Amino acid sequence: MVQFIKAQLDIKPRIAKKPRVLIDLDGVVRDFIGSLVRAYKKQYPHHEILPINSRRLEDFFPIGSDIYKFTEPGAISKIIENAPAYPGSLEALKEWSEEFDIIIVSAQPEMSRSSTFVWVGKNGVPTNEVHITYDKSAIDGIALLDDFVDNLQEFKQTNRLAVCLDQPWNQEWNGPRVKSVSEFFQFIYSIIHENKEGKIEDKFLT
Ligand SMILES: [Mg+2]
């Protein structure tokens, strides 16, 4: 019955306060590099791409700085919208969204902002809050999962837990490190539940 369905949609759910955790997209949930490589290979099928272990993309693609043409307006949208998720990452977000409020924090230039929102919707990312920002440490949340050392350092300086998603380009980070989104949630869940206060202790912030 139509009326019944409408009523269901209008029901305000009981507010359950969950800890807020900040999750980066590229290099954590979304495989931007994989999508870039795929687009590149379409154009240069015989080029050999070196293993990417820094943010200096020009060092790994045979066309050098011309690789940035792939990230210009007109080209970047498709690369972003069609990027695959890392295996298991979306599933982990869905599973843990019962326990945590998932807050997406993604640093994007203006030209890739709308395609990032498209990607979030297209992939059913379980979040009510998406921040496109270079200033992730200004966002409220108990912990950040990110692959970029500068972001992790800034966040750590606010005395909160900064956790690195292991990638070849962030090996210099010497704080907490996980191999997957799922491992990140298990890590912070265990910290919270070992602490009766429900807060993260100082010893985990170093
Ligand atoms: Mg990232």
What's the quick description here?
It contains seven helices and six strands. By secondary structure, it is an alpha/beta fold.
Give helix and strand order, one letter per element, not per position. HEHHHEHEEHEEH
Structural class: alpha/beta
Nearest-integer average pLDDT = 91
Q: What is the CATH top level name of the largest domain?
A: Alpha Beta
User: Which hetero ligands occur in this complex?
Assistant: magnesium ion
Helix content: 25-40%
The number of domains: 2
Residue runs with pLDDT of under 50 for 5 or more positions = none
Give the biggest sheet.
Answer: 6 strands, parallel
Beta-strand percent range: 5-15%
Radius of gyration: 19 Å
Which oligomeric state applies?
A: single chain
Description of the molecule:
The chain has 206 residues and is an alpha/beta fold. Helix content is 33%, strand content 12%. The chain has helices at residues 2-10, 32-43, 76-81, 89-96, 113-122, 149-156, 181-194, and strands at 20-23, 101-106, 129-132, 143-146, 161-165, 177-178. Helix 6 links the parallel strand 4 (143-146) and strand 5. Residues 24, 26-28, 146-148 line the site of magnesium ion (MG).
Question: Which properties best describe this structure?
Answer:
binds magnesium ion, globular, six-stranded parallel β-sheet, 206 residues, 2 domains, 7 helices, 12% strand, Rossmann fold, single chain, alpha/beta
